[in-house]
Amino acid sequence: MASIVNHQTNNFMIMKLPKKIKQRVGWFYHVVFRHFVLGLRVKMLNGLYGMNIAQDARVSLKAKLDFTNPKGIYIGSGTYIAFGAVLLAHDMSRNVSSTVRIGKNCFIGANAIIMPGVAVGDSVVVGSGAVVTKSVPNNVIVAGNPAKIIKQGIQTGPLGIIKVSIDE
Q1: How many beta carbons lie within 10 A of that of residue 20, not counting itself?
Q2: pLDDT tens-digit map of 103-122
Q3: Kind of pairing between the strands at 14-16 and 3-5
Q4: Region of residue 14 (phi > 0: left; psi between -120 and 50: alpha; otherwise: beta)
Q5: Model-level pTM greater than 0.90?
Q6: Which GO terms describe its cellular component (predicted)?
Q7: Do residues 72 and 89 touch, judged by C-beta distance below 8 A?
């Protein structure tokens, strides 16, 4: 039960919010506010850190992008990076800085790790928890540790949503 403080009285009486108001506030947060914050995060990462992220890409607030080599991260338009995903653009064990390129209309699943020097092609879906150690071609689904191609010839739309054809 959510509550607000009534500032009209000196004792700050607590009032209970009706369920419908809570639902509307929750909808506003999840649909409007959260979408706005994700868009602001992309602008901040581009401007402040020098990352090259397309304006319509979405990077989760819990995703971890490499700030050691921020100019080595490229994310294409229509791409979604889910929570807990890690994009690395350096390897301290070999003292190497490299680039990570994510193509257009890709989906990088939760807790996936993209290693330095990897290029992910356009319309690629990377499964949750996958560890991508080698470059990935266009139009595939990869998963596993290390990531392997599971399916080829897929088509994805914005944010990596798979387009299902009637033939399948």
Answers
A1: 8
A2: 999 999 999 999 999 999 99
A3: antiparallel
A4: beta
A5: no
A6: membrane
A7: yes
The total number of residues shown for the chain amounts to 168
- SS3 for 10? coil
Query: Is the separation of the CB atoms in 116 and 89 below 8 Å?
Result: yes
The total number of structural domains that make up the chain:
1
Dig out the tokens for 102 from the structure.
């994510």
| 128: CATH | 2.160.10.10
Q: Band the pLDDT of 37: cuts 50, 70, 90.
A: low
CA 29 – CA 113 distance, rounded (Å): 29
AA letter at 109:
G
- Long-range own/partner contacts, residues 148-152 (CB < 8 A, 24 or more apart): none
Q: 143 Cβ partners below 8 Å, 6+ apart?
A: 109, 126, 127, 128, 129, 130, 150
Angle at 42 between CA 37 and CA 44, to 5 degrees: 90
Domain region containing 130: 18-160
